[in-house]
Amino acid sequence: NSEIGFDYLRDNLAQTKKELVIRDFNFCVIDEADSILIDEARTPLIISGPADTPSDRYTTAARLVEVLVKDVHYEIDEKKKEAKLTEDGYDAAEEVLQISGLEDMGWGTFITLALKAKELFRRNKEYIVRNGEIVIVDEFTGRSMPGRRWSGGQHQAIEAKEGVEVQRETITIASITYQNLFRGYDTLSGMTGTGNTEAGEFSEIYDMSVNVVPTNRPNLRNDYPDAVYTSVEYKNSAAVNEIRALHEGGRPILVGTTSVESSEALSQMLQAEGIRHEVLNAKPE
């Protein structure tokens, strides 16, 4: 799906007909349709080009925010993914930088990016560090995405935070979301094992109906209600108990976690219990 998206963007940048690779958007069949059309609907596909040489202000801002205190010098909105300095924060930043007028001197954006890098972009969750580079981790699949970069200077701010080489900034040359890409097809269809729960969104966004195909044989699966725990520790402990019971019965089990950090924490608990297992996450071996 990403390759056809980038082919579409490259076609729009082509100078001659010989450079075009995509045929007319007539009919499309998408595997795991809910993942692509709903979960990743607003994920932008971007072709970018090099801009100016990176500013050393990224590194200075990264060092500055390390001495600032959350809820005293700055505030974080986790839901909106926003960061902003308080009045005390402005005063402290100007004192450290020995300037007057933080925004007028062009420091505001760099400090905001550095604060977001510090509080909202966590190592081994949103990204990993591999071979001296910041590699984004896909929030839906947990897979690393080499070559992808956050825009607007955010990637440079994270590079400065981690102490790796700050790469040149980029400018967006062409961009499209999966939603707009696939809505360009005359006929759109797909398949997935979990599409019925998203039927309303399929109808509202894509004018698509969801048809449930019955199983070939009666379903023998037992669907139990969700188990909710008051803390991550209790949840992981219950998971380990369930894994142990299945393991002792000789049954294999695949356990999914939401981050590299979570997978490593659960792995340590399994090791402590002497349960053999393999960890597959975005980090290199």
List keywords for this structure.
285 residues; 9 strands; alpha+beta; two-stranded parallel sheet; 36% helix; globular; three-stranded antiparallel β-sheet; 10 helices
Number of strands: 9
Task: Give the assembly state of these chains.
Answer: single chain
Mind describing the biggest β-sheet? Answer: 3 strands, antiparallel
Q: Which stretches of 5+ consecutive residues score pLDDT under 50?
A: none
End-to-end gap: 28 Å
Q: Please state how the strands of the largest beta sheet are arranged side by side.
A: 5-6-7
Structural features, described:
The protein has 285 residues and is of the alpha+beta class. Helix content is 36%, strand content 15%. It contains ten helices and nine strands. It has helices at 2-13, 33-39, 57-66, 87-97, 108-119, 154-162, 178-182, 199-206, 232-248, 260-272, and strands at residues 27-31, 44-50, 74-77, 82-85, 127-130, 133-137, 144-145, 170-177, 187-191. The strands form four sheets. Strands 5-6-7 form a three-stranded antiparallel sheet, with helices on one face. Strand 3 and strand 4 form a beta hairpin. Helix 3 (57-66) crosses helix 6. The chain is globular and about 75 Å long. 20% of the residues are buried. The mean pLDDT is 90.
